[in-house]
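[step 3/7] inverse_fold.run input=structure_tokens len=285
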């Protein structure tokens, strides 16, 4: 009889737990609907997802993360991470799960509302902070970051090299960079110089270049630039970064280039960057 009572108690407890789980999932789904539209498909610990039928196909951006994850250290304890254009926080959460302290920034209040709700659902509120910010506003802060996560934003920027120069200067160890590119992977052999009266090499497919998008790409007027692969690598180098790996299509893992040659190259535009960082203070006042 005692065994029967105990079995009944267990069954009731299991049913109560299942009810509580269903209620949680239903409440989360209501919140997800209220916060729509989503761009990131987040997997909440309860099993609920924010955008399981993604318009980019598959489980986005998880399928991208699966390509990159082995290129990022497993243990990020003690690392300070900056996630630019964090959107609903998918990458901020993955990096925080590895132990990092993360600052996610985005201009869009709508996406930040999603991120701020999701961080509690993930139980990561002690490790991740979200701020509404323009990428260029980082020029006003002295903080540097061990890892700068710069995925899916460069081509949305009207002033892309300004942002890249700012962020390269803020990178202590690694930058994960991704941008929309032009088709092709060719790299022109010698870009050291070009004669003023023969600029035809600049038309070669492997010459570093960016297509300017005056109107739209994929219907989106905030897409400004599409660089070719040679152009991406050249801009990363020119901003003081060295490409370590290409974890996947359009993705570049970089580290600061501490060589004298890189420093000499950056000195060519140092005063322009200084004008942005420090309002252009000159020694003569
Ligand atoms: C294509 S989504 C990429 C989201 C995420 N980084 C990823 O790779 O999945 C671009 C994000 O960058 C944000 N963004 C665009 N321009 C920005 C800017 N100037 N400063 C900060 N965030 C920006 C957008 O609001 C959007 O959330």
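[step 3/7] decode complete -> sequence:
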């Amino acid at each position: 009889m005692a065994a029967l009572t105990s079995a009944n108690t267990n069954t009731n407890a299991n049913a109560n737990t299942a009810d509580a789980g269903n209620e949680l999932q239903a409440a989360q789904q209501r919140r997800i609907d209220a916060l729509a539209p989503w761009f990131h498909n987040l997997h909440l610990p309860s099993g609920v997802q924010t955008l399981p039928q993604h318009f980019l196909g598959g489980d986005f951006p998880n399928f991208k993360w699966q390509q990159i994850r082995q290129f990022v250290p497993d243990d990020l304890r003690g690392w300070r991470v900056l996630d630019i254009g964090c959107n609903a926080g998918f990458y901020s959460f993955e990096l925080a799960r590895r132990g990092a302290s993360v600052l996610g920034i985005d201009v869009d209040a709508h996406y930040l509302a999603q991120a701020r709700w999701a961080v509690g659902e993930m139980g990561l509120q002690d490790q991740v902070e979200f701020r509404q910010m323009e990428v260029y506003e980082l020029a006003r802060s002295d903080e540097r970051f061990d890892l700068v996560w710069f995925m899916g934003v460069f081509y949305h920027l009207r002033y892309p090299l300004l942002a890249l120069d700012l962020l390269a200067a803020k990178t202590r160890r690694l930058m994960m960079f991704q941008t929309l590119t032009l088709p092709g992977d060719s790299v022109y052999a010698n870009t050291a110089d070009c004669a003023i009266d023969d600029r035809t090499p600049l038309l070669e497919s492997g010459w570093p270049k960016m297509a300017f998008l005056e109107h739209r790409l994929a219907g989106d007027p905030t897409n400004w630039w599409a660089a070719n692969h040679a152009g991406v690598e050249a801009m990363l180098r020119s901003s003081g970064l060295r490409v370590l790996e290409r974890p996947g299509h359009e993705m570049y893992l970089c580290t600061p280039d501490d060589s004298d040659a890189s420093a000499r190259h950056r000195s060519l535009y140092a005063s322009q960057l200084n004008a942005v960082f420090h309002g252009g203070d000159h020694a003569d006042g």
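[step 4/7] annotate
Strands lie at 80-84, 101-106, 128-132, 145-151, 171-178, 210-212, 225-227, 241-248, 251-256.
The longest helix spans residues 2-34.
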